[in-house]
Every structure is written in structure tokens, then in C-alpha cells.
Amino acid sequence: MLVTDLIHSCSNDKVAQAATCCIGGAFAERVRAAARENGVSEGRFVSVIMRDFALRAGDEARAELARLIAGCDQPILHGLRRVVEAALEDGALFSDQGEEMGAPLFRRGGLSCTAMARLERARLQAF
To answer: Where are the domains of the chain?
Structure first.
């Protein structure tokens, strides 16, 4: 349920912008720089990442995200940060294709949210 709420809320440019500002710090700076580099607003950049996650994330990736944000004080912000940081760390190439959601929004041999979940699990196991 939290993951669905996260996707529905942060797929909106204005909500994504406000959430990014609420998180602030180095995260917001990274998002701002990446958005500027791609010629879109921060909110648009984050909302496209969330829409891409919604399209590509399988049950395993969604369940992993749900486990990671369960019990957090601010689960929506925590989940947003996890999804966006994973996309930024993967070095995905941004492609803003408007409302046409049939084609992948991130390309580099294909950004897989399942792979993002595996990467996150591996990173957590390393610590």
C-alpha cells in the first residue's frame, strides 16, 4: 500500500518537487543538478523516475521497497529517496517522453527496477 501511495503521489511533478525539497540536503542538490543537466524541472525529473519505476518494477522490487520503508517515520519521503538514488547511481540516461509511457524512460541497455532492488540488497548485505 505504501509503495502504491508513493507512486501515485510522487508521479505528480509538483508533489515530487515538494518532496525533494522536504528531503533537502545533498539529495536535493543531486536531483537539482541532474534535472538541470537534462533540461527539466526537479519535479519533472523525479516524477519521470517514479513513473518509470511504476512501469518497470516487478512484485519483487516493490516488495523490497515496501520492506525498506515499512516503519519509517516518513515512508513516502524515504521511499522516494531510495528509488531516485538508485536511478541516479545506476547512471540511467534520462529521456522525458511526456505522457507516452509505452517506451522506456531510462535507457542504458534498459534500466531494470528488479536490478535496482538486487543492487540495493547487495549494498545492504555488504554492511
So the answer is: 2-126
